[in-house]
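[Meeting: bench + compute handoff]

Bench side (C.D.) handed over the final construct sequence. Compute side (W.E.) agreed to return the predicted structure before the next meeting so the bench team could plan truncations. Sequence as handed over:
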Amino acid sequence: MDRFALSDATSPRIYDDARLTAALVAAHRGGVAVEPPTEALSLARGYAVQARVFAERHAPLAGYKLAATSPGGRTALGVDAPLVGLVNATEVIHGGAVPSTPRPLYAEAELVLRIGIDLPPARDSGAPALLGSLADAIDAVFAGIELCSSRFADDDVAAGALVADNCLLHALVLGDRLSDRWEARLAACPVRLWQGTASSAEGSTALAYGHPLKALAWLAAWLGEQGRGFRAGDLVATGSATGITPVTQSAPIAARFGDFGGVQAHIGFQDKDEGEAK
């Protein structure tokens, strides 16, 4: 059985984007796992399906998550740039229980940045002025754990299908507020993720596109290509600092960001599309 298989009761193969959208929405609401599309999706189609699924879940946009921010991740997916997921407000957990899921869960420790002001659409992600303006716009930095879970019955999917599935986002847990502004010390902060007595995964915030601000700038330029800019209050999960780690739903998951602070995630029992977690 594949790692992400729910059961033998999966939805039929999807042949068009509308049916794929409906199946993914149903899976978010507790339906059966979705068979991967038989036809490869382009990134453009994947993002179009992602947007439709997001709209049909009827929750406000809370921010964005970045995936494939490491060279190894991009190589494995055959892409040359990070991938973007949309975070809705019900998926942001402030120290409470994370909704449970019948699917396997994976955890990533991530630095989460909050934008404090509206910003115009950006253009050049490498412009020093953009990096400076983004750093100045950050009004909070959080320790975060992203919990990932596929809605597909088979995890061996191409990048377009991964994007359609919102880059596997299940929940974004926010822990300690590490700073009220961007600090250079956060650019290469050591990070450790663990669950119970299991071996910990270790890494650095620098694994997020080489530097969390560079990851943020890439996203700003990606949004700018669509005529969009960050809005005050937007959260950005900048990419995994510890890789992707299998976790169970039987014990808390914790991460520590150097001497700055940490975060802990507990698995709960209420569906996130039905209300706040207990």
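W.E. noted at the follow-up: The first strand starts at residue 61 and ends at 67. C.D. will use this when planning the next construct.
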